[in-house]
Amino acid sequence: MKIVGRTRPLFDGDVASREQQLKALIGGSRILAIGGAGTIGQAVTRELFKRDPRALHVVDISENNLVELVRDVRSTLGYGSGDFQTVPVDVNSRYFDAFIESQEPYDYICNLSALKHVRSEKDPYTLMRMLEVNVFNTVKTARLAATQGAKKYFAVSTDKAANPVNLMGGSKRIMEKFLHRESSAVNVSMARFANVAFSDGSLLHGFTQRLMKHQPLSAPNDVRRYFVTPQESGELCMMSAIFGENLDIFFPHQDGELELTKFSDIAVRFLENHGYEPVQCETEDEARDRAAELIPQKKWPVYFFGSDTTGEKAYEEFFMGNETLDMDTFNGIGVIKNQPDFDSAILDEFDAGIAKIKASSGPWVKAEIVEHYLNVLPELSHEEKGKYLDSRM
After folding, report:
1. What CATH code is carried by the domain that includes residue 83?
2. % of the chain residues with pLDDT over 90
3. What Rg do the C-alpha atoms of the chain give, in angstroms?
4. Looking at residue 126, what is its pLDDT?
5. Residue 249 resides in a domain
């Protein structure tokens, strides 16, 4: 926590004051966690499991991560009294449909899946996969929740959906708009939150990998982010899923404890915490070349740079200026209060346009997909720079 500039947990007071309600509401419920094997998904699953639900079924495409989730839960929390299952299938498959058909209805369906990397928007093929996961699978599972008469459908959004500048954040903002439409059939709540520190695939997770492999650290020195711990991400999602009213979006309260932090500053604290002195290098080549020399001296080569890749937002924000906020109900959690606001014709046009591209026989063109984005999000300030994070160390 100190590495990312934090001194105390954000949500422990809110969770503790509502613990009896959480146990009562979760304990008697059947819950489906979709995308439950990622960093956020595992954290949410652990929080739900602690309250001993009647059934907790976890679906994810990562078989290995599901195995680790089971080992982690069994090794720390034990077994509980409910039906705990993990199912390694794709939501967009007949295997998922068959599993659902074999089960009783769920009280809560929590969608924790996402393609979350800005780098995933670099080509039309990954971008289409992002839309499938972040938008269309969300619509599918929200309609499943409505059909089953679920008490709540919860979906993870992102801070990058607020005034989006990249297609990843744009996909989550489009998801929010589709959920406004679905909210007439089922109660929906969401969460936007900061980077989850050391989550799989994150830059901070990359720091750990570079340390293990004796490789230099590289980070932008002009990009600032908020950070929550994995447990906090699980708590925030759980609180929204259980206590959020229809179309509420929960986010971390910026109360002085949560401050924007530069990745380069985190890299320095990370190395110092592991007993190494950071040595700044002028180029990536210098950082690579000096690794063998510096590391035995308890020094570590670092390369810090100004961000110049497509889709990188200089800072994070959780809400937009026209959104109504409730900052009083919770201590560490803010709530965006929404009323349904959507244009069905525009959403249908987006759906049909993406389906047409997907069905086409020729090569997919990214610019055509972006046109459909802009039809839904004319405010999207996306700038194509021709360079992506894959071009960085």
Report:
1. 3.40.50.720
2. 78
3. 21
4. 92
5. yes
Q: Given CA atoms 193, 194, 199, 203 in this order, what sign does their dihedral have?
A: positive
Closest C-alpha to 80, from 120, 113, 53, 42: 53
**Whole-number pLDDT of residue 94:** 97
Q: Residue 24 belongs to what H/E stretch?
A: helix 19-27
- Angle, vertex CA 167, rays to CA 164 and CA 168, nearest 5: 85
Tell me: the pLDDT tens digits for 71-129? 999 999 999 999 999 999 999 999 999 999 999 999 999 999 998 877 778 899 999 99
The whole domain housing 179 covers 11-196+227-258+316-337
Cβ-proximal residues to 366 (8 Å cutoff; 6+ apart), any chain: 123, 124, 127
Query: Percent of the chain, pLDDT > 70?
Result: 94
Spatial CA neighbour of 231 closest among 252, 255, 209, 217: 252
CA dihedral sign of residues 374, 380, 383, 388 = negative
Residue 377: name the closest of 188, 168, 185, 186 by CA: 168
**Alpha-carbon distance 116 to 320, whole Å?**
20
Which secondary structure element, helix H or strand E, spans residue 337, and what is its range? strand 333-337
* CA atoms of 78 and 68, how far apart (whole Å): 14
Burial of 163 (0-12, 13-18, 19+ CB in 10 A): middle
Residue ranges in 28-104 assigned as alpha helix (H): 39-50, 63-76, 94-101
Give the H/E segment covering residue 225: strand 224-225
Identify which of 156, 175, 181, 169 has the alpha carbon closest to the alpha carbon of residue 251.
Answer: 156
**Which residues pair with residue 278 across a beta bridge?**
300
pLDDT in tens, 205-251: 899 999 999 999 999 998 888 888 899 999 999 999 999 999 999 99
Look at the chain and report how many structural domains it folds into. Answer: 1
Task: Decide: 201 and 267 in contact? Cβ < 8 Å.
Answer: no
